[in-house]
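Reopening this one. Same input as before:
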Amino acid sequence: MKTLTNNVTMQTIADTAGVSLATVSRVYNGNSSVTPATRKLVLDTAKKYDFHPNTTARTLAAKKSYLIAVILPDIRNPYFTELISYIEDLCMNSRYTMILYNTNGNTEREKKIVQEMISRQVDGMLVALTTAHSATLDLLSNVPFPVVIMTRTFNKFDSVGICHSDGGKLAAEHLLSMKAEEFIYFGLEDDDKFLGFREHLLDYGISRDRISVIGNQDWYFNTINSGAILLSNFIRNRTSSKRAGLFCVNDMYAAYALEAAHEAGLHIPEDISLVGFDNTSICNIVYPKLTSIYQPIEEIAKTGFQLLEDKMADGYANNKKEVRNIVLAPRIIVRGT
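Same output, byte for byte:
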């Protein structure tokens, strides 16, 4: 090997490692044609001399930004906090840099972020939409880079998530097993979670007047406190003596419901049974521990990232040729509620 000078460049790394400049370039661009042994040789040489490639020059040469935009609706929710943690690790282990945006459940803000990412020329985008019927979908159909939607599946986009309707059915089945006499959903009435919940109850023979929805307004991402107050007041002011089964749109609200039930002197699960959604860390830090619908967060992150990498590797001309929707199975984790 040749001895390094003080001015370490990519050419110097190539000369020192005894490989071509093109090979060094392939290593840093993640080209799979480089053998593991050669890749290790190049990276070990670079590490020894603390060499880092010029990212700006590399992006200009490759006509790529090496940026991935990640758009989430509410990073205060532990579900999305856990999701972004996995995605961040995946980006750190790849050649891409992550740009994170939080929409706070605001569709207009969501659209502005997407428009900004077009001007920033990101290479791809991972997005969890504010709602299943977000107006941003039309804008996403025309962006000049591949998009993968996480947590829900959409026919026109590459996507990965569980079937929320099936999750709702699991919640209904659990509350039926707990001998609930009336059934309440806390969330939006057009949510697939509720539609599956209601369908299963109706199929079981529960009459419609025993199934109700509270909080049917587009607020629960950006006005969490208002939603929590609404839920708490509902529980405290209930006059019915019937055993209740409450299914919440996420674990955060199920935890608020649990607190309100304690304050109202209700026994859980004897007076009211609770089911959350997402199976986040919240479930194990409340008492009694919360029953919840499990979403495989790590698998959603890994699968979504792999879908996006595949599309970015194909290039924009090919990224719409085949739409892949990956539907993962939900399951219920039964605990004390």
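So the earlier flakiness isn't reproducible anymore. For the record, Residues 1-5 have pLDDT under 50 and may be disordered.
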